[in-house]
Amino acid sequence: MDVSIVVxxxxxxxxxxxxxxxxxxxxEKASLSYEVIFVDDxxxxxxxxxxxxxxxxxxxxxxxxxxxxxxxxxxxxxxxxASQGEVVITMDADLQDSPDEIPELYxxxxxxxxxVVSGWKKVRHDPIGKRWPSKFFNWTTRRxxxxxxxxxxxxxxxxxxxxxxxxxxxxxxxxxIPVIAKWAxxxxxxxxxxxHRARKYGxxxxxxxxxxxxFLDLITLTFVSNFAxxxxxxxxxxxTLLFVVGFVIAAYLLVAKFVWxxxxxxxxxxxxxxLLAMMMGTQVFVAGFVAEMISRSSSRRNSYVIEKRVGIKNxxxxxx
Length: 320
Fold this sequence. Notes:
Layout: E1 3-9, H1 16-29, E2 34-40, H2 47-57, E3 61-66, H3 72-82, E4 87-90, H4 102-110, E5 116-120, H5 128-145, E6 157-160, H6 161-164, H7 177-183, E7 189-193, H8 208-227, H9 232-258, H10 269-295, E8 306-310
Parallel strand pairs: 1-2, 1-4, 2-3, 5-7
Antiparallel strand pairs: 3-8, 4-6, 5-6
Helix pairs in contact: 5-8, 9-10
């Protein structure tokens, strides 16, 4: 199979039939064998009924339904696991991403040998309250990751199959998939200017809470990428430095008391600072040791319940 198109769905019942027809027309014109994997992230409307109807109409449609809302990252993770195409393309279900981009994204992965091609919504049809926070996060992520992309959060992306079968995403990490891919060893990452359309149905799921979660996940991603396999390199160094500072202070006060005959050591603020430094150093060091033990037997972060599925016979190692 040439292409797997993974589409997270959350209350998008109106747009799904049009999106499916559009994808089918584009794939047929480009002579691409494909599948569309809709992952219903616990929608409260009739999205799942629509997906079931589309699966009966199109033998290329697959559907998975979560029992409740887990978030876009969980939906993508499950869709990646179920995908069978050589190239995996993600897009949003709200028709703001154009399926007309699919053939060129596929070509860039297959012919130009890129690992990841990220869409760049150079001209956006979003309110200013969504555009400017996005610009800030894109700038921050570029500085931290050293990946020169303009739009990390664009839902329209293409991946080589090896990428999606290797990485794991959770929390709000979906916006940082290019970063995760790079740190997993997939360095051929580029971007393509894509068409961004005004929302036709429904309303945006964007909110202030997602900004905070996205920022916290960026910090987590940066820490985990550098120290997940060796937490003692982080906690151990800090703990050792704190303990050494506290020990030096204690040694100085000891010499001052018995050699220079200075008394009332316990009344000096320096005494309490040294004591606190040694205590904190010991605690941080122990935390690093515990983290080192946990990292050797860490559990998977994605845990969710699949309520229904259509068109998919087996989802290996994903149902828990």
